[in-house]
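Dear H.,

Thanks for agreeing to be a second pair of eyes. The structure we're designing against is below in token form, covering all 116 positions.
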């Protein structure tokens, strides 16, 4: 005599029979890309949007990150993920970074043209 399948086993086998489309419909919706106001990312973006801009040293102090982490954040999140136009200039207090008006940087538009 065989034992009847438990409910866990039956549920697993039923889940395996679902197609990929059916599984993706049951998953939770993706979170929106809005930035929460109390995160390090939001603080850095606010510092960069200030008219005076900010330095890497100031961001390092605010986030407790190392210099290479701040630079990686600029390249990966600010420029690539968010597509913001990050400009820098050399001043008497060091290199100052700020987000310029306009969504995409010229490098982003060049990449879009190449992809098309």
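And this is the sequence the design step returned. I haven't edited it by hand at all.
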């Amino acid at each position: 005599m065989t034992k009847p399948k438990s409910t866990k086993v039956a549920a697993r086998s039923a889940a395996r029979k679902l197609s990929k489309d059916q599984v993706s419909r049951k998953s939770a919706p993706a979170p929106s890309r809005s930035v929460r106001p109390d995160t390090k990312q939001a603080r850095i973006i606010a510092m960069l949007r200030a008219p005076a801009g900010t330095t890497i040293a100031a961001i390092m102090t605010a986030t407790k990150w190392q210099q290479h982490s701040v630079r990686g954040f600029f390249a990966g999140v600010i420029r690539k993920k968010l597509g913001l136009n990050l400009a820098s200039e050399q001043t008497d207090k060091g290199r100052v970074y700020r987000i310029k008006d306009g969504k995409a940087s010229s490098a982003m538009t060049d990449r879009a043209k190449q992809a098309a």
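Two observations from my side: Strands lie at 86-91, 94-99. The first helix runs from residue 7 to 17.

Warmly,
E.
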